[in-house]
Amino acid sequence: MSLFERFEKSFMPNYGTPPVALARGEGSAVWDVDGKRYLDFIGGIAVSSLGHAHPALVEAVSRQVATLAHTSNLFVHEPEILLAEKLLGLLKDPAKIFLANSGTEANEAAYKLALKYGRREGRRYFVAAENGFHGRTIGALSLTGKKAIRDQFGPFPVEVRFVPYGDAEALREEVTGECVAVFLEPTQGEAGVVPPPDGYFQAVREICDSTGALMVADEIQSAIGRTGHWFAHQADGVVPDILTLAKGLGGGLPIGACVGFGEAGTLFAKGDHGSTFGGNPVSCAAALAVLDNVDLEHVQKVAAQLRTGLEAIEHPLLKGVRGRGLWLAAVLTSDVSAAVQKAAADAGFLLNALQPDAVRLAPPLVVTDSEVQSFVDAFPKILTEATP
Ligand SMILES: *Cc1c(COP(=O)(O)O)cnc(C)c1O
Q: Which residues carry this modification: N6-(pyridoxal phosphate)lysine (predicted)?
């Protein structure tokens, strides 16, 4: 029986059956179980920041797992301190951190932090964006603006009002003195790598300031160098009240973080929140290795090369390119992203059919210029193969 058949026999059908079974990786390359090599242009959904089997990550994780793999939160350990100090250094503004294991848990922490603020201030509803994605647990799901994945699991305990993403005036109308918090991605990832218009995040900050609502930036997909900045909001020159991180932070090891700036960092009292695995030493060691080895200048250079290369392609199936840094969507003129993903895999490139008319590119941040070039060179033929 193939791995795919065994997968179907053992697992719930929530993912469908993925089309490729991977066995190993090195740098930006991965090999499937039959030995076919691919260039990985999706990076485990913007997670494998350092690519695969990066020596620094291997060394840090191996050393830590052989030293002390777990403590629980009954004990302090040095890797969590080093990680928190490193993150605070990169964030610059005074803040405090809670460590979780995933993106959705980082957002649960943000949600509970905001609830504490809301209850204290007599505020009663949240605002989030249509098509936004914040995770699959009930709190994060209630903030997720995609009806297909949210509505069947409602009703939710707290009211969430949705506004069109990128529309500052719509946001201004919905956010009042009764709004607890506004949850937004600096660029919408799962919605199709959709950046907002210039000035949107500054307007969000201003609307939150004038109403007292907390501004929560979900940077689970956009941070840790993905856009060419440590955090996407830094490019907008605004500081949120709460920031959530995960995906690229651990470079493949599970870790999430909720950052509270200023007063927001002091809202939890002892006993208000917790996680047995959150901030475990191995994941913290991995995250430190990631933060020590991401090279923003390199990201900016190869990102510009990828974008320019794709934009220069003239093909009837390619409408355009959007996104920031090494986080792009190639937008198609028809709904054939699944065929593009398949043709790319056949040609030895992994990418992701994100929306019916868009494929997502999020290669490791260590992708080389020659690897970028080989993708750019191959893409026109991939598009032709996928043309109906
Ligand atoms: C992936 C993602 C999440 C959820 O993270 P998980 O680790 O899958 O729980 C939340 N928000 C955004 C913006 C994401 O991209």
A: 247
